[in-house]
Amino acid sequence: MKVSNQKLEEAIKNLDFKWLVRKEIKELPGILWENEIPEKAVQGVYQHKQGILVATNKRLIFIDKGFFSLTVEDFPYDKISSIQYTTGIIFGELTFYASGNKGKIGQVDKMAVRSFAEWVRNHIEQAKENETTNPQPSGGYSSPVEQLKQLAELKNQGILTEEEFQDQKKKILGS
């Protein structure tokens, strides 16, 4: 299911951004994944490029739109290990570590840097919690009890017939 244009437009309107990054904001709908919603944004400099760092419900996205170029770099929350911030007299800086790499966004509005970092930190924690509560199956070596539970679920959903359920149950139990 794709996010509706109206919902996307509302989310973009709610972002706090300056007129300098309107080009980047116009590119955003084409960059977002299905069911992805922009929730926070800060303006800044990343790798000598002036752009916008957008926090969505799924990842961080840095966007820089030049006259003839478009730079997009994304960082899914489950790949970000930490984020920190510093503030100076006028600007702040965000630093995050993702997949062994260090990302720095400089010249961020001092008033926005802390709340943005805290918001991202919460999403990193949620991604870690989801990873531990919903671990990916490792090579299909689930216990017989787990396999039986999955079979029962498929039967209850009407995907397996009683006969198919019994056949698979015998295979799992080795009888």
TrEMBL record:
User: Superkingdom of this entry's organism?
Assistant: Bacteria
Q: Where is the SHOCT domain?
A: 146-173
Q: Where is the secretion signal located? A: none
Q: Where are the transmembrane segments?
A: none
Q: Under which name does UniProt file this protein?
A: Putative oligomerization/nucleic acid binding protein
A Pfam family name for this chain?
SHOCT
- InterPro entries for the chain: PHb_sf, SHOCT, YokE-like_PH
Protein source organism: Desmospora activa DSM 45169
Q: Which residues form the YokE-like PH domain?
A: 34-121
